Amino acid sequence: MEDGNCYQIHTSDGGHEADGTWTLGAPLSCDSPGGLSYTDQSERLPPSLNENLADERGEVALVGRRLFLTTGDRGLTWIDLETGEKGWDHFGLTFLTMAFGDLDADGLIDLVLAGEGLTIVYAWGTEQQAEEELIPKGTWELGRAIFEIVVADLDHDGDADLFAGLNNSSHDPEENRSAVFWNEGGRFSSEPTLAGGDSERWGMSFDAVALDLDGDGDLDLYECNDRGIDVGPNTWILNDGQGGLEAVDGAGADIRLGCMSVSFADLNQDGVLDLYLGGTRDHWSLTRLGEFWVDSSASTLEPLAIEQMVWGSAITDLDNDGIPEIIAGTGAFVGIDPTPWPLYVASRDPDGVWREGLENLEFPELTGSRAVLARDLNQDGVLDLVAGDSGHAGWLLMSDGCTANNWLEIEAPTGTVATVESKGGSQTVLITDEPGYGAWAPPSAHVGLGSDEQVDRIVLDIPWEGRVTLEGPIDARQVVRFEPESRL
Ligand SMILES: [Ca+2]
Ligand SMILES: [Ca+2]
Ligand SMILES: [Ca+2]
Ligand SMILES: [Ca+2]
Questions:
Q1: Alpha carbon distance 228, 357 (integer Å)
Q2: Cα 195–chain centre separation
Q3: Which ligand is nearest to the CA of 386?
Q4: CA of 313 relative to ligand 4 center, distance in Å
Q5: Distance between CA 431 and CA 410 in Å, rounded?
Q6: 201-237 pLDDT tens trace
Q7: Is the Cβ–Cβ distance between 188 and 120 less than 8 Å?
Q8: Ligand lying closest to the C-alpha of residue 39
Q9: Under 8 Å between Cβ of 58 and 334
Q10: CA 395, CA 387: separation in Å to the nearest integer?
Q11: Of 64, 278, 317, 432, which sees the most CB atoms within 10 A?
Q12: Are 346 and 326 within 8 A, CB to CB?
């Protein structure tokens, strides 16, 4: 498995069983279950250094116990959730997006900053911190730059590569062709390889996610592109199995919009992952039917106001009832002052329509909310919410204790598709570190189980590794982790 040449890939008719190790935690107890409720703890977040600058990006990240948010002056603020310690980081370049991963495989998280240049901050926040400039600052203007970085091992040599989504502000699709910076044993190429395929398909990258589209075992990418009407549509980028990337026919997923965010989730709960897209003027749902993606927006989503932009998105089960919710950061195009758009949450009714609101929850109504991250920060088995905001430090909504409904959390390599079977049925989720625009956290997925106290089976389809099954019964209310042999 280690030499990168001798591996078998999973095929949809069975195939290779991945080698690796399962780790089960101790189930959390829930002595006094309550209804779902949140306390707004946003005042805990450190203020931006300059409150008079809008933070157009509003990105958020969770690294260890530290929560990071971008600020209007293109720096980062952070808070340690354990100790309450706060800080600010500034770097020598103006960046548009941040990404994370262990790029030199030393066990420490590295930070990637992309915008007017491309800089890696190795062992970020530790005494070994060291910067490497792959593309000098000032190479690009901010309107013509890298708008998205996906950290993923695209050629299966064990090293995490950098997929760079280019947004050249050009109406010529060829100018927006995305690229890969290759990682060979912890050393990066400074000359990227441009991806190939039909040049008319390349658009102005804004968000992207890595997953195995065609079930052949390698990591592909879906790219969400701004100004699709004028330039190029959203794009499927297929991997040839060795890291060669090619934009291909989107089979209905190549719609044209002002795309800001892409999230994959099984919206109609038929066991196949669907697509949720946020952007200028509205949001979209694309249902996967066999090889095709069908635009189901009109019949499944409530339309939003033209001025209400959907920036970030996360689709996961907040109340642990087994039906996911859509959480989206919505706001105006720009702005420092609060805009009349909420941190949006929608739940699915029995007719399959996602309607705004959830039980008696009241989320902030006046926001310029951007990236959204849903993770269990206070470890009570209920997802907490973090959102960036264009006008102030951001939002931190903490759950007020456990729910009577059960849950399970799974950690596995990014791009893994997990199927969780329990008495109430089967659920399929994407395990990813890129849940939607501008949000990052180590790859995991949270599955609500309703009244089911045990899980019968967990099946993981792991890119490059194959399929692995854990037979139950597995107790609910715990974190289950699978680590492939090749990464131990
Ligand atoms: Ca593939
Ligand atoms: Ca589906
Ligand atoms: Ca739910
Ligand atoms: Ca929580």
A1: 30
A2: 22
A3: 4
A4: 18
A5: 8
A6: 999 999 999 999 999 999 999 999 999 999 999 999 9
A7: yes
A8: 4
A9: no
A10: 5
A11: 278
A12: yes
